[in-house]
Amino acid sequence: MNKKLCIFFILSLFIVFLSLSLVGCGPKAQNKEQVKTIKVWHWMSDREKAFLELAKRYEIETGIRVNFELYAPSDAYAQKVRAAAQTNTLPDIYGILGEKRDFASFIKAGYVYDITEEMDKNEGAWKNKLFAKALSVNEFGQGNSFEVKPGIYGAPIDVTNMQMLYNKDLLKAVGVDPSNPPRTWKDLVAVNRKLKAKGIQGLVSGWGETWMIDCFASNYAFNIMGKDKVLDTIRGKIPYTDPDWIKVFDLFREMRDEGIFASGIVTMVNKTAEQLFANNRAAFAFNGSWCVNVYRGMNPDLNYGAMLPPEASDKYPMTIWGGAGSSFMVNKQSKEAQLAVDFLKWITDAPQQVFLSKETQDLPSNKNSLKDMPMVLSQFANAMDNTTHPNAWGVSEFPVVIEAFDKGIQSIIIGEKTPEQLAREVQQVKEREIAKKQ
Amino acid sequence: MKEGAKYKVEKFLKDSVIHILLIIVSIGCLFPLLWMVGSSLKTQQTIFSDMSVFPKNPAWGNFYSAWTKGEFGMYFLNSLFYTVTVVFCIVIISSLAAFAFSRLKFPGKNILFYMFLGAMMIPLPGSFVPLYVLMTRLHLVNTRIGYILCMINVGLSFSIYLLKTFFDKMPTELEDAARIDGCSRLGIWWNMALPLARPAIAVIVIFNSLNVWNEYILATLIFSSKNLMPLQRGLMIFQGIHVTEYPLLMAGMTITALPIILVYLIMQRHIIKGITAGVIVG
To answer: Into which CATH architecture does domain A161-322+395-437 fall?
Structure first.
């Protein structure tokens, strides 16, 4: 018995010894006196390689080391950031995932450096390089509902927007000039009739992910009634039963009746929609600028272009969702906050933005880096002036209203509801929420 | 004669239904694995167009690319170390604790045990932030020991519960006999309780190995150094925000799954015994 016990305890000691020795193999403390270091946390695994290369270049140029630490997927990253905020261990630079109210709570807790002054320095040299729409996502205006001190709190490292994609080969196959895709709603319906006659599916999109329906409907709401009326609806001044909203909902009814939708669109996740479009199985797609990278991976020979969604009205311009793709914030508590700001200035400068865009096929946030881009990517970039984003509206709709709105549109698509019915239902939910708030 | 024929038909029908059900369940279990292996042999282009389970021209190079690109060598050793250490510690601590809960009398025994049971009800993500706060206060963030302690904590409750149930059913006569032979409490645990609990320990080893081997979220929280990360970190490299390298991801997953399948195959004969632990002891 004693022999066995001896073996057991020796084994235990061995394990403890091994543990301790491996603990010693952990990262050594940096020699802070020798090299100044900035720590960056991010979640963008597809950009990791490009970031590491940029960090090398930055160290050569400035002697400052930048440690990029990747935490993916984004859920794990978001938890890490939340936990680090609670223990005041956030790095020098990080990104905040989530809605604007999450962003606001980090600012109010004192974890985000206000970079407005830096942006405005030298007559706005930094600010003027970047797409204004991308900055607005990181900006809090005067009298914002989040009660955050007005200012800019993040630097966009890339931008994104949502547009319609068209398959040039499929349009050509039905006699439509691919250099002249449908610009108006009527054109879209006409082209779709030709596609339908040849058994080609029309529009494919990941509308099982309801935010994409919200985005599509919002584009047409802006086009039909203009920004002010949309925002007044959110403020509760205009009901969803307004004829203009019914017109928006009716577009979905019309698309259903005309057979524009690819089958199963209501439950389709965007990945499936991307596969269908990439494999030439649908003529149109509604997707974000990231799709350029996705389609390149799925089918490098795909012959396609990007266009604004065809206008349903000539009253207001077509406005699409877009803005900052990913942004970095500087930790206000960081001892190296100024170094971190300098690094953000550098990474958003044209040469670095061109490099990032080439490596990742994302749209650069710097307006001066659009040269030598693939055609589809420049089509996306050219539409940046038409972008808007709910985070930049200064008002936000009740989550339950958004849910009723999006699910209601799904119901129209499957023929369960009429536009008028949906308008009434969404308005009822809205009134209920307003009453609760009062 | 008629009765015999009727019995045979009934038996045949009953067996057929059972076998069909089992075949369906087996296919349901095996198909994802087959699909994973098949996909690991496709290319980024063919994965979306080739619908066959196994491609005609398998891209074996995916395994090499996944191993090198995902830096699996370093992560593999890390995961192996975490799994062996955590599982070993869980078996020792939980068997000692379960033996104490089952055989010793001390104040607050039941409350303490119910607290362990209560801990089982808290899902792991729910305890992330408190664990991170605790590890930060103890200066154990970004250390192997911090992660190992957290993982031991995660696996203890279930293991103690399973072993206590097992020890409760162990006849006291066996313990008395050992005591008469001059065994100490520790000696009884080592010489009698542990060998008898082998099936339950096998279950604990498999469940916890699986848990530690596949764990990633807690590692992300505790570690900031890439060198300390477990194997799952290698897989994340292939998943971008919008683009996923599916063939490499599947090749990586196949590599990752192999050791755990091996552990399962070695321990599987104990599984049924372990799950029904407590029905017959000794």
So the answer is: 3-Layer(aba) Sandwich (3.40)
